[in-house]
Amino acid sequence: MAIHINKKLRAALSLIAIVFALIVYVFEQDPLATTSTREVSDLATEIPNLVDGGQVESAGTVVRILADDNDGSRHQRFILELANGQTLLIAHNIDLAPRINNIDVGDIVAFYGQFESNDRGGVVHWTHHDPQRQHVGGWLKHQGKVYQ
C-alpha cells in the first residue's frame, strides 16, 4: 500500500512541477515576441473603425518602401498591406529609434503606434518611445527584432 501512495504522490508532484514550469515559462516570455497579442486578422478589421489618434497594434506585409522623410525629424517610411487589404503608411522616427536596415518588399512587420486616417488607408506614427513621455510608446517588430 505504501508503494501505491508513493506512486500517486510522485505523479502529483510531477504534475505540479510541470504546471509550475509552464507558468514560469509564460511569465518570462517577451510580450513582443509574438506578432501580436491578438490575431492579426481581428486587428486588421478594427483599423477602419479607429478614431484618429487612437493606438493600434497589428502586422502587415511590406508592399512598398519609400524614401526617408528628412523634413524636420527624420522618418523611415514604408507601406504595409494588412490581412483585410487595407494599406497603411508607417512613419518611423529614426531620430528617436533605430531604423530597420534590412527591410524588403514582402517582409512582415508588426507595429504598435498612433493611427491617423487618410484617403489612402491611414498612417501609423509614434512607433517608438517618447523621451518627453507625452505619448504612449510604440514599436515595430521585424524578423524577431523590436525597434523602439
List keywords for this structure.
about 150 residues; 2 domains; about 25% helix; globular; 2 helices; OB fold (Dihydrolipoamide Acetyltransferase, E2P); alpha+beta
Task: Give a structural overview.
With 148 residues, the protein is of the alpha+beta class. A hairpin with a 6-residue loop joins β4 (108-116) and β5. Strands 1-2-3-5-4 form a 5-stranded mixed barrel. It contains 2 helices and 7 strands. The longest helix has 27 residues, at 2-28. The chain is globular, with a radius of gyration of 21 Å. It has 2 domains: 1-30; 40-147, Bacterial OB-fold (OB fold (Dihydrolipoamide Acetyltransferase, E2P)). 23% of the residues lie in helices and 32% in strands. It has helices spanning 2-28, 40-46, and strands at residues 55-69, 75-81, 87-93, 108-116, 123-125, 139-142, 145-147.
Task: Summarize the structure in short.
The chain has 148 residues and is of the alpha+beta class. It has two helices and seven strands. A five-stranded mixed barrel has the order 1-2-3-5-4.
- Output the strand order for the largest sheet: 1-2-3-5-4
Question: What do we call the CATH homologous superfamily of the largest domain?
Answer: Bacterial OB-fold
Computed over alpha carbons, the radius of gyration is 21 Å
Q: What is the CATH topology assignment of the largest domain?
A: OB fold (Dihydrolipoamide Acetyltransferase, E2P)
Mean pLDDT: 78
Main structural class:
alpha+beta
User: Which class of the largest domain in CATH terms?
Assistant: Mainly Beta
How many structural domains in the coordinates?
Answer: 2
**Which word captures the global form?**
globular
Poorly predicted runs of 5 or more residues = 21-41
